[in-house]
Specification:
DUF6503, mainly beta, 8 strands, eight-stranded antiparallel β-sheet, 1 helix
Length: 142
């Protein structure tokens, strides 16, 4: 779910951004920034992301990342991955990537082999009411 909402989470409280750098990733030049988190932010504040955005469209093309949930930072950094976002379509004026590819990744070699993919086929924003997320009467928590 985090990757679906990733572009909307970039300015969440507790995010720390590096300065923008121009970098090469698989023969294309991108704007790149490293995203880390303040202590006690989110479920895994030791995670980090490297965001590669197109310098012309400013859309995110790739995000390299580690996942530290249930493992040390060192173990997570030994197995980094990346996600590629493509086939952006406008939904209510907001660009949403409808194709994702997951890759092996390294800071020295860039994108490696594809290890998975996802396709968004039907996406829309829904109107909510003030009680949309209220717990219904009679709900039993187990």
């Amino acid at each position: 779910m985090y990757f679906l909402l990733f572009s909307n989470k970039l300015n969440d409280p507790g995010t720390i951004w590096s300065n923008v750098e121009s970098v090469q990733l698989n023969d294309k030049t991108y704007n790149s920034q490293r995203l880390t988190f303040e202590a006690n932010t989110g479920d895994a504040p030791d995670d980090w992301y490297i965001v590669y955005s197109d310098p012309h469209t400013h859309l995110i093309d790739y995000v390299a990342y580690i996942v530290t949930v249930n493992k040390s930072t060192e173990a997570a950094e030994a197995d980094p991955h990346a996600i590629g976002y493509s086939n952006y379509k406008m939904i209510d004026g907001i660009p949403v990537a409808h194709n994702w590819e997951f890759y092996e990744w390294s800071s020295t070699n860039g994108l490696g082999k594809v290890i998975g993919d996802a396709t968004i086929r039907s996406a829309k924003f829904v109107k909510t009411s003030p009680n949309t997320f209220d717990v219904p009467d009679g709900f039993i928590e187990k």
